[in-house]
């Protein structure tokens, strides 16, 4: 039985609650859609086009237009001001959200491990390999987590969200704990999981306690520019990791090709590259303060 809600709904509700209960920076705010606030731009001198838009002219278009570099300059300045105003960043978080199935019939493949209805979600090999590469390469700089609700109905999800109890009704597993498995199963939040195909019991962990204990990297070389360099440094490492990945590398390069002209705006470029990373891999990038 599939859950009667969208994975994106769970993700959005989860992020709202996480923002309320811990010091988390959501770095993909205004630029989350992966552009500068519009899908395309052009400066046209076509009389017919301007007439259709309600701005007829004889010799010169009614608007002079604006250099996109001016917009990029402003975005770089705006983002820099925002990250200077938040506390020092400690560690990056990569959340892989999952919408589980709820298995209620005894011939479910993992029924023998529970002998009662249970939740399960698939672990995709290409996605898991990338998450493990990030985990193995970045170490304490990043925490990579699968998050899935112990909920099957949209009405239940909305109720739990309204009660601000979604985190305590979710199952969390580190990506490193699920390596070499193709599914994870559980019966409720706050208890152990059994990952398959070779069954392995994996104990639950308290997400909020883990987040509060994170220290991450401490690089004094960043000085007063710590948060800015923290983000740029992480983006460079993610770029390097994805470029080495046989499955995602080509698409990642294609998505980032349109950003070449923005490379000198290092902070803005970093945010946009990480947006492409999210769109390609389906992961949510957050930062623990």
Folded structure, characterized:
The protein has 289 residues and is α+β, with helices and mostly antiparallel strands. The chain folds into 2 domains: 7-27 and 89-213, no CATH class; 69-88 and 220-282, no CATH class. Helices cover 40% and strands 16% of the residues. The protein is built from 10 helices and 10 strands. It has helices at 7-21, 47-52, 68-84, 111-114, 125-138, 154-162, 207-213, 226-243, 249-257, 266-281; strands at residues 24-25, 91-97, 101-103, 118-122, 142-149, 170-174, 183-186, 193-196, 200-202, 284-288. The chain has a 5-stranded mixed beta sheet with strand order 1-10-2-5-6. A 5-stranded antiparallel beta sheet has the order 3-4-7-8-9. Helix 5 packs across helix 8 (226-243) and helix 8 (226-243) crosses helix 10. The longest helix is centred in the last third of the chain and has 18 residues, at 226-243. The radius of gyration is 22 Å and the shape is globular.
Give the structure's gist in a few sentences.
40% of the residues lie in helices and 16% in strands.
List keywords for this structure.
10 helices; alpha+beta; globular; 289 residues; 5-stranded antiparallel sheet; 5-stranded mixed sheet
Number of helices: 10
How much strand content do the residues show? 15-25%
Task: Estimate the mean pLDDT confidence.
Answer: 86
- Largest sheet descriptor: 5 strands, mixed
Query: Could you give the distance between the termini?
Result: 38 Å
Per DSSP E runs of 2 or more residues, the count of β-strands stands at 10
Task: Round the Cα radius of gyration to an integer and report it.
Answer: 22 Å
The SSE string, one letter per element, is HEHHEEHEHEHEEEEHHHHE
The helicity comes to: 25-40%
Shape: globular
Strand order of the largest sheet: 1-10-2-5-6
Low-confidence blocks of residues: 30-40
Count of structural domains: 2
Structural class: alpha+beta
